[in-house]
Amino acid sequence: MRGFGYGRTGPLASLRRGWADDCASQIVELALSLPLLVVFVIGIFDFSGALTLKQKLMNAAREGARVAAADPANDLGGSVGIVPASVSDVNQVVDNYLLSENINDCGLKGVSPAPAGALTWVSSSTGNGCPGTGITLTINRGCPTTVSSGPNSIHLIGTCITISYAYHWQFNSVAGLVGGKTTGPSSLTVKAEAFNEN
C-alpha cells in the first residue's frame, strides 16, 4: 500500500494534512462575513443620516409655521399673482434654516411660491445638484385643526407647512453587493402646523 501514497510521506498523506490544517480558516470566514458587515455599517450610517436630515427638516417646517402663524393674515386676500408677504416670509425662513444647517436648499431661494388652491402656495426646485425630485415646500395658511377638550371640540385655523425633500439612499447600492435590493422612500416628508395668532 505504500506505493499508492497512503503512507506518511506520500501525496495523499500531504493532501490529508492540508485538509486538516485550519490556518487559513479565518481568512475564509472574513471573506464570507465582510460583505454583510459592510452592509450593516453602511445601513447604520445611511439610516442615521436620513433620521438626522428628517429632524432638521422638521425643525425648518416648525420655524416656518411659527413665523407664518405670527404674521398678520390680512395680506392673504390681495391681488392675484402677488405672493403675500407672510408666504414669502415662510419661504425665506425655511430656506435660511436649511442653509444654516448645511442642507442643500436645491435653489429654493430663487423660486417664488405659486398658488396651489385656496390659501395654499407651493415652491418646488430641483436645482443645485439635488437628488431626485429635489425639494417641495407647501404653505397652507388656512389649515383647519380641531382641538378636543373633554366633550367639547374647538375648530381653529392654522398654518401647515409641509416639506418634501429627496434623499439618496447609499444603502441600496451596497445591498446589491450581497445580492439584495431594498427600496426605501425616495423622499423624506415632514409637516408642522401652528395656530394663526392674527
Outline the secondary-structure elements.
Elements: H1 11-20, H2 25-70, H3 85-100, E1 114-115, E2 120-125, E3 135-149, E4 152-166, H4 171-175, E5 187-195
Helix pairs in contact: 2-3
Shape: elongated
Summarize the amount of helix as a percent range: 25-40%
Number of domains: 1
Strand content: 15-25%
How many distinct helices? Answer: 4
**Which sequence of strands runs across the widest sheet?**
1-2-3-4-5
**Poorly predicted ranges (pLDDT <50, ≥5 residues)?**
none
Number of strands: 5
Give the H and E element order. Answer: HHHEEEEHE
The end-to-end distance, rounded to whole angstroms, is 103 Å
Characterize the biggest β-sheet: 5 strands, antiparallel
- Structural class by SSE content: alpha+beta
Q: What value does the Rg take, in angstroms?
A: 29 Å
Overall mean pLDDT stands at 83
